[in-house]
Amino acid sequence: MQSVRLVQITFSRKDLDCIPQDEAALLLQIGGLIHEVISLQKFIHMSSHGTEDRIQRMAENAQAMYFYRLLAGNLFEGWDLLTERHREYKIIIAKYKPKLDSIAKSAFEKLECYFSDENNACERIRNKFSHHHDYGEICKIIRKWPEDDKLEIYVSEMHANCRYVASDTVTYLAMLGTTDLMDIEARLEILLQEIGEIARAFIDVISEYLSLILQEIMEKKGIEGKTISISGVPSLDKIRLHYFVA
User: Fold this and answer.
1) Does 172 map to a domain?
2) Domain for residue 32, yes or no?
3) Into how many domains does the chain fold?
């Protein structure tokens, strides 16, 4: 167990009146957005290590893939929120963009380039496999699927322990656009690396915008942070998110 240091910043709702209401809304909304992205990254990591048992590893890898699908969808929705959905937010993003540090500026350019491509993986996964479920993509894969491929389903009296591996497999194949099970591992690794890189760039950008707007409030209202310590914090590498539960 370790300890972590935090800076506690306390302000009143009235303190938010020192900045435009649209900026206050953006600050609070993207604070929640970054929580979602980071939490999903933690769940992915905790689902990706800690056991060599084949059935448990298979179930927890599939669990990690579910979080990856959610992460891809959240990244698309988050970028759309910042740059497309609200005129007020687009103005704020443009206002603070020149103040971004070099890391955030580079990350912003990477996100702009990535999401300008209509074939980006985050948008496709969001539209067909995470926030929506595309019937046509699944049927397309079933029609192409070799007839002799073996599938598995694990059934338990407890619903939480059922594992429909056949469903996982067809979803992977549809996401990757292949019916070649031998090819799936390499393609999947490339896809997950892509989503991971976009998530890191997204956090670099969002955290900088949060910092800039919050700093403005603190300077205008004379607010100072208070350093606190949280003890007994476990290493992320020591935590495993089990699929099967008693």
Assistant:
1) no
2) yes
3) 1
Buried b (16+ CB within 10 A) or exposed e, 185-221: eebbeebbeebeebbebbbbbbbbbbebbbebbbeee
pLDDT of residue 34: 95
- Enumerate residue ranges in the chain where pLDDT < 50: none
From the number of C-beta atoms within 10 Å of its C-beta (0-12, 13-18, 19+), residue 60 rates as buried
The residue segments making up the domain with residue 49 are: 2-11+18-133+192-238
pLDDT of residue 185: 83
**If DSSP states are collapsed to H, E and C, what string results for 181-217?**
CCCHHHHHHHHHHHHHHHHHHHHHHHHHHHHHHHHHH
pLDDT digits (tens, 9 = 90+) for 91-105: 999 999 999 999 999
- 188/182 Cα distance (integer angstroms): 11
**Among candidate residues 14, 105, 45, 33, the one with its CA nearest the CA of residue 74:** 33
Q: How would you class 171 by CB atoms within 10 Å of its CB: exposed for 0-12, middle for 13-18, buried for 19 or more?
A: buried
Contact at 8 Å (CB) between 5 and 229? yes
For 32, half-sphere exposure in the C-beta direction (CA atoms, 13 angstrom radius) is 7
pTM here?
Answer: 0.91
Could you tell me whether strands 2-8 and 226-233 are parallel, antiparallel, or unpaired per DSSP bridges? Answer: antiparallel
Give the tens place of pLDDT for each residue, 155-183.
999 999 999 988 988 888 888 888 777 77
